[in-house]
């Protein structure tokens, strides 16, 4: 089932519930893509990654983008695309001074998003899920829908500041261009771990994806994110295990294998040390 809603200002929302889909296109608008359950495999300018329910992807207008869904269980995807005037006006509003907004002299520039995966949590998650729920109930009011899309962009800019701007400031390189290039490569490392978290990946694999040496990866990753790649990967596996415990009927042993752990006992110990509760007690508490 595929639902498309295009507003009069060229903003567009696409919601799909399917086991199988394949799209290849040049993205014609600024787009944010979400997955509420399952996985969507994507390729962006020859770069491959997966969108899971705890992440969202941002794609610029004009980018070559393809996506694929191939699943036994239906995958629920949701994307919002922004009309050119809407995104320019929003960017102008958040990047200009109050004086510039009042005198109307500032030029409305076209923003360039950092195309990557971002964490889907907090206000962004609340806003998007609420919009999806309202649309499922038949919401047709364009003014209200545009308010939701405004808040979607506002939340993205806040996430961008936290995930990009603040991380740049933490890197110790003097030149701005060097910091930007290093963070871009660290982003590739995070994307690779997020998309292959359940595989037996090594530091060498991650470093190769980021075009960094192992030692350079370890030093700069810790500078930017304040944890090591290994700690990031363990957190990722544990959080996705929580999601499976909450939303599926898989056995504990199945979940252990699905998230990339080899030993159930070590998984249980690490889960309890991290969340102060055992996996089965966590599942029971969420069901209650």
From TrEMBL:
Statement: the UniProt record of this protein carries the keyword Cytoplasm: no
Keywords: DNA-binding, Transcription, Transcription regulation
GO MF annotation terms: DNA-binding transcription factor activity; sequence-specific DNA binding
Occurrences of domain HTH araC/xylS-type (ranges): 187-285
PROSITE patterns membership: HTH_ARAC_FAMILY_2
Alphabetized InterPro entries for the sequence: Homeodomain-like_sf, HTH_AraC
Entry keyword Transport: no
SMART domains listed in its UniProt record: HTH_ARAC
Family annotation (PANTHER family): ARAC-FAMILY TRANSCRIPTIONAL REGULATOR (PTHR43280), HTH-TYPE TRANSCRIPTIONAL REGULATOR EXSA (PTHR43280:SF2)
Protein name as it appears in the record: AraC-like DNA-binding protein
Organism: Pedobacter zeae
